[in-house]
Amino acid sequence: MKTPEIITLSVAVLAAVASIAAAAIAARAARAGSRNTSTATRLAPIETARHNAQRTAYAEALTALYAHLVKTGSALPPATELEEAARAETEGGPPLDGPTVQNWRRRINDANDPDPVRLALAVVRLEGPGHIADDAKRVEEALEQLDAALRDCGTLFAEEGQPLHEAETQEPGTCATRHRALRRQVGVFTAKASAYLNSNPTDQAAAT
Fold first, then answer.
1. pTM of the shown model
2. Following DSSP, what letter does each residue of 119-162 receive, concatenated?
3. CA distance 207 to 136
4. Among 48, 53, 103, 51, which Cα is nearest to 78's?
5. Please, what are the averages of pLDDT over each run of 10 residues along the chain (208 residues)?
6. Which of 95, 106, 182, 187 falls between 20 and 30 A from 65, CA-CA?
């Protein structure tokens, strides 16, 4: 049978062991917390710089896109006229007035300059994150489709009075349809970029 002294000593030893274990756990937790705080402190400037770079890239892309939409929008009336005139000529319609055609072509070609937009979208795709880069790619695809349609219109008649090229003409309204498609994609990109930039850091990290 254990004496009261042994029982008292055993309780004391157990209490001491428990105290040591608790202290060790607390120390480990403190070290982990310190490391996390230190890591967060080190990463905060990096994340801030990255966030600012993304914001700048998105803003520059949207500025270029909306400027391009305005410029190409001004080219839609002559583009539609050319599309309809080309279709009429292939169906045996009367020849077009040469100076008028050249004016239409010049207005289209002067308005269509997608290279600055391509560059801005490339920066967005580089900065990310992935889902924003994917949206930028879809915007770029719509941009290329509009560019192709406008280029087709701009080369329908090579010289004043020259007959229409033998290549098939595009449907009247193609340029306008592709312009609307680009505008829709820009709207989607704008909404998603805004949502990402205004989300909390945890959500941004999960989206990266």
1. 0.71
2. HHHHHHHHH--HHHHHHHHHHHHHHHHHHHHHHHHHTS-SSTTP
3. 15
4. 103
5. 45 41 47 48 64 90 96 95 82 72 89 96 93 96 96 72 54 94 96 88 52
6. 106
Q: What is the DSSP letter of 169?
A: P
End-to-end CA distance of the chain: 67
Residues in the chain: 208
Determine how many CB atoms are found less than 10 A away from the CB of residue 169. Answer: 20
| Burial class (CB within 10 angstroms; exposed 0-12, middle 13-18, buried 19+) of 134 | middle
Output the pLDDT for position 43: 46
Run of H or E including 14:
helix 4-90
113 and 71 Cβ atoms separated by less than 8 Å: yes
Burial (CB < 10 A; 0-12, 13-18, 19+), residue 54, is buried
Encoding tokens for residue 134?
């994917």
Q: Are 111 and 74 in contact (CB under 8 A)?
A: yes
Q: Which two tokens stand for residue 2?
A: 């254990």
